[in-house]
Amino acid sequence: MSRLDTLLSSGVVAVMRKLPAEDVEEIAQALVDGGVSGLEVTVDSEDAFGAIRRLREKFGEEVVIGAGTVLDSETAVVAIEGGAEFIFAPTLSEGTIRAAKRYGKIVIPGVFTPTEALQATEWGADVVKVFPADSVGPGFIKAVNGPLGQIKMMPTGGVDLDTIESFIKAGAVAVGAGGSLLDKSLIAAKDWNGLREHAVRFVEKVKESRKA
């Protein structure tokens, strides 16, 4: 199985943004135990590159660890040198895409129009991040999937347990989930078992939606 296949296997990529630095490994373990196959540490988090490195060492090939909120090629290279296996971006940057591909890494840039989605793919994107997904809804994924069915789309931004099914059925290959998955109250209480069970619900929702 390729690393991209592994990343997309659960259909859930966790967006780990500005979490308590001392709890990042426990949070990641709970998510992985819950079946999540992709972990994205945003570069605006405390000690983001250190966290990426430690998570790579901790999980090895079990899950795919990447860097998020990458806005330029320089940051992409630093993240990759630190161990990131994929680059997640909120915007479309040719330089960022080409930097990731130069190092043989997965790259998922942010897009908001069919033109951007096609441009990203032509520049080498493996998947496109439809962001912010809650602004366009599943109907956008379905409509674009018609003429551009070759493009893998991952809606991110406002995706939760209530909308996952609609996005997956519309043609999304996976979803990116941040605050809805990384429940602040569970993290504040250090309820790792509760977080694991919450992650299970996300993964199961994707699995059920893919069968439907």
Average pLDDT over all residues: 97
- What distance separates the N and C termini? 24 Å
Can you name the CATH architecture? Alpha-Beta Barrel
CATH class type: Alpha Beta
Q: What is the beta-strand fraction?
A: 15-25%
Instruction: Estimate the global geometry from the Cα principal axes.
Output: globular
Number of strands: 9
Q: Which blocks of ≥5 consecutive residues have pLDDT under 50?
A: none
Side by side, the strands of the main sheet go 5-4-3-2-1-9
User: Which topology does CATH recognise?
Assistant: TIM Barrel
Fraction of residues in helix? 40-55%
Number of helices: 11
Q: Largest sheet, if any?
A: 6 strands, parallel
**CATH evolutionary superfamily:** Aldolase class I
The overall number of domains is 1
Structural class: alpha/beta
Radius of gyration (Å): 16 Å
